[in-house]
């Protein structure tokens, strides 16, 4: 059974988009996953096909209507988890991605405008998810990020089953630095340990570099990894969004 992705959106033409090329595109053509965009506007009931209205209490912008979104969601309801892409959601993690990739698929609701009527989240079982501490024009780009993260973990998509084991976040750390030929470039040489052929030394170096880079670049990850509070090093660059 393939991984099924149903995307509720005002812009179904955005899918599969970039997921139609490279590894994800090949997996789509091979039937390893399925992409089913659904036009939310099809569930509007007035002659203007309205999906939004002015905010209760006043304010700028428009808010997506709960009744229209509920009708769209109910039309595709099944046992798959329903996620809404919103900056108010819980941060997406590699652990959550792995959990989703092990399942039968996901239904994704893409918000637009000022957001979604809160009553929808009270009335339906919807997991709110954020891909970073920044605001996008809509949930579609965030949905593409989430789906790409899931699809690459599906069996047979990356090739070798171990391809993703040492990547950033898989062990709670950032990935160690990578190098390849030429051995010397612009006066910079690949670290000697990586040219030594000593697998034990290489493994130890990679572990040490992963720990050092995580501590310096992402002290928040390092704190969770170590279970203790570590002060941010002076001048360390912190990432609050996605790299």
Question: Could you explain how this protein is built, in words?
Answer:
The protein is built from 7 helices and 9 strands; from the N terminus they run βαβββαβαβαβαββαα. The protein is of the alpha/beta class. A 5-stranded parallel β-sheet has the order 2-1-6-5-7. A two-stranded antiparallel sheet has the order 3-4. A two-stranded antiparallel sheet has the order 8-9. Strand 8 and strand 9 form a beta hairpin. Helix 3 (94-101) crosses helix 5 and helix 6 crosses helix 7. The radius of gyration is 22 Å and the shape is elongated.
Total domains: 2
Per the principal axes of the C-alpha atoms, what is the gross shape? elongated
Strand order of the largest sheet: 2-1-6-5-7
Which bin fits the share of residues in helices?
25-40%
Tell me the CATH architecture of the largest domain. Answer: 3-Layer(aba) Sandwich
Largest sheet: 5 strands, parallel
Number of helices: 7
Distance linking N and C termini: 32 Å
DSSP strand tally:
9
CATH T-level fold name of the largest domain: Alpha/beta knot
Q: Helix-strand pattern, N to C?
A: EHEEEHEHEHEHEEHH
Radius of gyration: 22 Å
CATH superfamily of the largest domain: SPOUT methyltransferase, trefoil knot domain
């Amino acid at each position: 059974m393939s991984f099924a992705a149903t995307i509720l959106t005002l812009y179904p033409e955005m899918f599969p988009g970039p997921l139609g090329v490279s590894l994800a595109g090949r997996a789509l053509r091979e039937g390893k996953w399925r992409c089913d965009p659904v036009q939310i506007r099809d569930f509007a009931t007035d002659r203007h096909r309205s999906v939004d209205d002015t905010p209760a209490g006043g304010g700028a912008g428009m808010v997506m209507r709960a009744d229209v979104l509920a009708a769209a969601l109910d039309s595709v309801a099944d046992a798959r988890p329903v996620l809404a892409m919103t900056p108010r959601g819980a941060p997406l993690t590699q652990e959550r991605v792995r959990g989703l990739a092990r399942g039968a698929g996901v239904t994704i609701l893409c918000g637009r405008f000022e957001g979604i009527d809160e009553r929808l989240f009270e009335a339906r079982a919807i997991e709110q998810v954020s891909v970073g501490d920044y605001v996008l024009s809509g949930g579609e780009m965030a949905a593409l990020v989430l789906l790409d993260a899931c699809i690459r973990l599906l069996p047979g998509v990356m090739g070798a089953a171990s391809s993703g084991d040492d990547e950033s976040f898989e062990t709670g750390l950032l990935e160690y630095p990578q190098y390849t030929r030429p051995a010397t470039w612009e006066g910079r040489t690949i670290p000697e340990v990586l040219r030594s052929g000593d697998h034990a030394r290489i493994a130890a170096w990679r572990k040490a570099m992963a720990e050092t880079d995580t501590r310096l670049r992402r002290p928040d990850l390092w704190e969770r990894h170590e279970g203790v509070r570590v002060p941010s090093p002076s001048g360390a660059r912190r990432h609050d969004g996605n790299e």
